[in-house]
Each structure stands twice: as C-alpha cells, then as structure tokens.
Amino acid sequence: MASPPVRPWGELQHDLLVAIMSRVGTPDLLSGGAPRACSAWWAAARDPFAWRRVDLRDWTALTSARRAAGTRATSTSVSVQDALAGVLEVAATRADGRMEAVLLPEFADEDHILFLAERSPNLQYFSFPTTCMTYDQFCKAIGKLQSLKGMAVDESLINYDALHHVHQCCPDFLELKVFALYVDEYMASIICDSLPRLKKLEIPNADMSCAAIIKFLDCLEELEYMDISGYETSAISSTVLHKASRLKVFIWNSKFELGEFKDCSNCGEHSINPLEPCNCIMDHKVMDWLAGPSQAS
C-alpha cells in the first residue's frame, strides 16, 4: 500500500501556524522567528495574535532564545533590566497593541510596567512579583490600563489607596493574585473593601489566619474562585469549608497535608516522615487535625 503524501509543515494555513506559535511559549516564539526558520513559521512568529500572552518568567530560557535569534540583548555588557526592556520592546512591537497578558520576571522594575502601560494600553492582565514599585508610579501605570481585568502583585502594593485606584480606573477588574508571606484579617479587609467585585482570588504559599479566610468568604459576595494552597498554618476549619462550599473552585491543600510540615499541630509529633504518618492521619482524622484541637468537631 502506498504511503499517504506528506505535506511540509510550512504549508499549514497561516491562522493555524499562528495558533500553534501562540502556545509554544515566549522563548520558543522568539527563536521561532529566527532567520533559520522557514518563511511561513517566521511570519507566524511575527503575527500580532501570536503575542497576545507573553510569559517572561523563565529568563534563562529567554536569554538563550535571544542569543539563538542573533540579538545583542543577551550581551554580557547589558544588564538584565536593559535586556528585559529589549524583550518587551520586541513583544510590544510584534503585538501591535494586541497584547492581553504579560508575566514579568522577579527582577522587573517600575520602568518595565510603565513601558507596558504606554505601549500596551489594552493589557488585560499582568504579573509583577517584585517590590520595585512606588505608589505614585503604580497609580500612573494603572491609570493607563483601563482594560485591566486582573493582576498578580507583591503584598507591598496591597493597601487601600492603591487597590481603590485600581477599582476606580479599571471597571472590569475581577482577578487578583498576591505574593505574600503573611495575610491577616486586616489585609483581607483592605482587599475586600477596595475590590468588592472580585471573582477570582489567589494567595498561594502564605501564612494565613483563619479569620482572614473567613473575611474573604463573607465579604467578597461575587467570589467564584479562591486558591490559598500551600498555606503554612492549619487554618481550615469546618466553618471555612462550609462557607467556601458556595464557590465554584476552592483550592486549599496545605503544606501540612502534603507532608512538608515539621510537626503536627494536633498531637505534637515532630519530624514526621510522609511515609510513616502520625496517628491523626492513620486514624483518618485529617480534617480535625487541620482545624486544630480547639476547632475539631
């Protein structure tokens, strides 16, 4: 039987190539547009729709891609901030105003977010995990991003004035992620009071009080999605689970549950080996253990 004819990748329709390129990740997207690529892939890598979501968090992979593309942004004489500015310039140019989301690396600073606000005013989401942002500059950037629907920021930007400015400037803002070490009821109140229409809230890997979790669940009436996974205190009680039952998604697995803890808050056993769990788990009392002795049912 004769083999079916094989068609070259370069003959795929342009729209399909663009859809593929938009999913390969920014490092591959950069190198996919290098001179060595065929003309069809080269064109797809430069189509604005392929640059709607730009993930710059893996800087090592990005610098390798830039080097492969033959640019000078990875020269040893260029700082990482300048190199990031060069990548953002490429992304903004190729996106041609269609960039919807950008995820910045940890060393990004306020100049980078201000550049995005100037060049990509239709941006809907950004992740800015660093503390290198003053209140005035943050408000300046937010004032230009009226289409913003969500953001991920460090806890240093979680204050009433900053978030209230987001609420005033961005009428469609519904999603917040916070990079925080500790979240108490006061911080929860700030978020609830300034962003009452939140539908999605993510605060992973934080030391969070039970009162803070309940505050979110009681006050954010439109909340549908909540991720507090990786929390470091046993704050999940039967009350929390009951209140969270109205959500579409509630992710709350803790470091305790995953065997990454050093001791058990219920029985006091130390240096627990996940392969040899303590009596609380062996007796299937996981929920009582997580809630703590005072909240056990």
TrEMBL record:
InterPro entries (alphabetical): F-box-like_dom_sf (IPR036047), LRR_dom_sf (IPR032675)
Domain of life from the UniProt record: Eukaryota
Gene3D superfamilies according to UniProt: 1.20.1280.50, Ribonuclease Inhibitor (3.80.10.10)
PANTHER family: F-BOX DOMAIN CONTAINING PROTEIN, EXPRESSED (PTHR38926:SF12)
This protein's name: Uncharacterized protein
Organism: Lolium multiflorum
